[in-house]
Fold this protein.
Amino acid sequence: MVAPGIWLIRVGTPEAFTPVRYRSAPPLTAALADLEKCEKLPLALEGISVLRTPRGVVVELPMEMTEQIFGMGMNLNVVDNSGSRKTMRVSDNPNDTGDTHAPVPFYVSTRGYGVLVDTARYVSFYAGNLAPVSDDAAAAPAQSGLPATTTEQLYSNRGVVSRRMTIDVPVAAGVDLYIFGGPSAMQAVQRYNLFSGGGAVPPLWGLGVWYRGHSKFNAQNALKLAAELRDSHMPIDVFGLEPGWQSQSYSSSFVWSPDRFPDPEGFLKKMDSMGYKVNLWEHAFVHPTSPIHDKLKPLSGDYRVWKGLVPDFSLAETRKIFGGLHDALIAQGISGFKLDENDNQPVSARPWSFPEFSRFPSGMDGEQMHSLFGVLYQQTLYDRYRARNVRTYNSVRASYAMASPLPFVLYSDHYLHKDFVRAILTSGFVGVLWSPELRHAQSIEDLYRRIQTIVMSPQALVNGWYIMHPPWWQIDRVKNAANEPMENYKEVEAVCRELFQLRMSLIPYLYSAFSQYRETGKPPFRALVLEYPEDPLTFRIEDEYMMGDSLLIAPLFAGDDGKRKVYLPKGAWYDFWTGKRYEGQQSYTIEMGPTRIPVFAKAGSLVPLAKPVESVRPETQFELNVKVFGDGSQPFRLYEDDGITFDFEKGKQNVIELQWTAGGGQVRKIKGAYTGASRYRVAGWDRVAAQ
Amino acid sequence: MVAPGIWLIRVGTPEAFTPVRYRSAPPLTAALADLEKCEKLPLALEGISVLRTPRGVVVELPMEMTEQIFGMGMNLNVVDNSGSRKTMRVSDNPNDTGDTHAPVPFYVSTRGYGVLVDTARYVSFYAGNLAPVSDDAAAAPAQSGLPATTTEQLYSNRGVVSRRMTIDVPVAAGVDLYIFGGPSAMQAVQRYNLFSGGGAVPPLWGLGVWYRGHSKFNAQNALKLAAELRDSHMPIDVFGLEPGWQSQSYSSSFVWSPDRFPDPEGFLKKMDSMGYKVNLWEHAFVHPTSPIHDKLKPLSGDYRVWKGLVPDFSLAETRKIFGGLHDALIAQGISGFKLDENDNQPVSARPWSFPEFSRFPSGMDGEQMHSLFGVLYQQTLYDRYRARNVRTYNSVRASYAMASPLPFVLYSDHYLHKDFVRAILTSGFVGVLWSPELRHAQSIEDLYRRIQTIVMSPQALVNGWYIMHPPWWQIDRVKNAANEPMENYKEVEAVCRELFQLRMSLIPYLYSAFSQYRETGKPPFRALVLEYPEDPLTFRIEDEYMMGDSLLIAPLFAGDDGKRKVYLPKGAWYDFWTGKRYEGQQSYTIEMGPTRIPVFAKAGSLVPLAKPVESVRPETQFELNVKVFGDGSQPFRLYEDDGITFDFEKGKQNVIELQWTAGGGQVRKIKGAYTGASRYRVAGWDRVAAQ
């Protein structure tokens, strides 16, 4: 046992370059000890076997027949991994075989334990789909000797009855497995996140709405759109600049374009005066014209990407040079970055990234670097913000294991709405955050449904990198480019504004959920199975999730006629909008018009809703109305701090308890040493009782 | 130099299990010496570099900027590999990254050399798409610093200017590279095939038409359809039985079903009396009820597939037991087998085959076995036919390097007509044969177009495994199952019959091309670039190919309105049907009605066409009409032997020269000791002169 409820199983001689070695933060040991006690290794040691060959090391762990397996990366295509193989490869082109932006080699079982394979190799998990000859059950008679007549029939009769988790770690002569006890699946995930250093806490403004401008915007274009957004009272906190801000992109110079942004300070000052934080796009590959190119040459891999160097971010000297250039941008007021294309293309015939056999000065090879690259890159920039005691919230396209403390939200070029929702669920198993960003929409309905999803996600992002005007102004890309608004754009804009306002009203609730992420490792967004692992009906649910402890989100999708099936787990639930009460452990077909997203509140819960602001400023105080669902018996813990620094780590944070009794609502500070301006004012209580 | 024009470059310590070790036949050294002299290693040794790491071995070979690379497996998706990466993995689901039924690690360059990487590992080729930092050219300034606004723009600007072939061999501590000299690309391929043991020569009947019956057919069903086909005078030589013939399939028992085939000998006698050869479906996985299961248990891999054992076919004892059971079937008169599902599923989330970390009694691991499995399985059965001095022709779903002597034709569940045509081209680079089989059709036009392709391929196969009646009787699968013929089925049948007759008329021409394949290694079906590597316009052609030395085939596809562009290389060409003359080095848009396939004959060539028979019997003598295109200056070498045994290897074969002079045609035996019944009678000459 290496920490409370966490065991290390060492097989052979592990490799030098692994995610635990490159951890972002120390484990939160005290928080681990606060979890429910778990003193027994949740796997039978005698059921574990190991094979070592020139190909690498294979570890077999016992599984029970009824056990379901979740995790193994933030998968966009599938939630439940039982009976399947997944290979953990970072990829810009996610698929159901394990390629994903965050191929975290961690899984969690409904039996209440988790396993981290501490490797940067492209590890494969065979979750109960192999039939060893040594197991006589695997040769049990088939049901029928009749030949099949469809390919599906043929291949369904696979005859696997054996249940083992078989883990294939290529190349390595050994590997460390970390086993995370429960006793529940949720606690196993919490232990994994706390072992990683706890969850990331965004700055308060990070939970507002984000908008990214067109790739070719110059300062005037950006300021004009920013002003228009303010004029139309769209709540937006962060304005993102795409590649056009740089003198060179593909690869990156990391230097303002003298043509398009001749006066960065002046530009940033104007943006700040309108209440915007500014975020800058980049990727890691260093263009020959970048001022750090020559210094980084000996500190980079031996292959170029888009003519740029691939910095070895595992080296302190690389971080110093690369981070140093960024320090200048952070000093100018840049609130964060969008780290693009740090993933790989394992199944492409024309991959653009570096090959797996690359060599890096640290001694890593390309395969190891691909796995760790996203996390090391994130750390390089995050360290600079920490050094300034300034919080940041960012976008990133690749991550990996032990990433929960990093305030970076994953995104993808992959653009199917249902897959984007699925990733909200699967990100919660493996300690990463996910943004189901809006880019364009096929229809007004699609626009509304996608915005509904982004406002119920870790990062509410509209990414207009290829459109000159916002999508609610014109969804047709050709007309958008031709400056022709939709006829009813004012009406569409109003609906979108209201959805953004919904997001703004949820900031205190979400901020408190993120605080819980940091303190207890509990993911703010998560699949129902993590909460209800004893209920098999939750195993296959791919389109509902919990946002915080009280709200169940069931997004609707364009083309589904505003209807869907919702399964509500045990207990009672309330329609967030109408207050209608539903009994749990049942499925319901619900209908909802195009402007609203189905949300259900757990009976007994309290949900503080803020009067929406247009952007979150350091001085913002949220005026709260607390919705009380059912008997309101579950107090809500509202988190408070300065919202922008790391002072909370030194105790400068408060927990304010909202409590409902027969007599009405009570507000009570129950702990904390934050003494700054008060973040919240409770203006009212709104009881939603049983109908 | 290990053979005339063939060099071995050994890097480090190669692995024990490689395709050259498991070669099917000795190299044809005399035939190699007969090729044009090639005395200088076609690659600069000093341009070769090697990297050895725990991941494996990486070899870099020099490439020139103008060099184009072909081969690297029988690819269904792409012909020219220049600028791309391909990973050689055997797969039932072909794609453009190298997964294919025959991932042969051999490539040929337009510069006139070939390279075989003698490994059973999943080797990756990077054909000139990497940019080493050590190469300053790789950092040359980009064209433009302007940001792109589409993903395509972004990713096209990859900036690779360096030209190297980089070969990544995983796991291995060393590898043998065989370099095949030209001087031409064609001769490099010939050297590879002759080094492999020369090309396969099918029995004469193998070049007829094949039909496979429904999976659930019993003896009565099969006999009824076989009789109907004869009654309607459809030329068919081989009738195939699908899984239903076995007592158990998925996995296989290799034993006749007592219910469906209670009297195999009686059944086979009746089929033979109708002029059919019978072919049996199977896969290699041994069902627990098979009589050889228990004996094979210690001779198999450590994981089951479909509950069946995976025999280690590299062991003599396994071959003896597995082949022994098949000997009984061969003794009954079975003409060959269809070896299904011996490929793998490298990108599937639910692979059904054995894992890469499997262990086999020979010492091979699962990765090595996957690469070699198809070839070893083919050898196991082929050896039994050779031992009986009986030729055979078969179907198989996986093959690999050094496979040219094996009379097995690849096929796929993948079913796109254009991909099927592409594989005819790519199979010719890597020493394998391919069948673009017909299963069903979307329309009558699709039916005709697909049949036109199969009759111009190495194996003219109609695979009716999921339809009760032939597709020309009813193309709609639902109506086919409901016993409802198309209204005009007689008319459709007549067109198909005529196409099958075209195939039958080409048998002497094809048989001679196959003889050339064996004797000189020249593939009977091949891409134009192999013939005209100096003509860059041939590099990207994916839908035209040479069949033998004289005929250029340009298939049409349903939906293309009977029109297509045809590029004709240098020299003059004649429309096979109309005799219209075309000048080469030009593209033409040609039109052809639904019942005919565009075929062009090289000016000067002679093409013997036989009067079609309904099936090829041992006593069949072909009545030939020789078509003379243009001046007829190129004599044709007609191959003759008994058509069914291996006696030709002992010289019992004749070459008959057909020659055209101003005075008319001449027939002349120019060599050979075959003294059996004469195969051919030249009945006439038909001159197609310039219009």
About this structure: DSSP finds 13 helices and 34 strands in chain B.
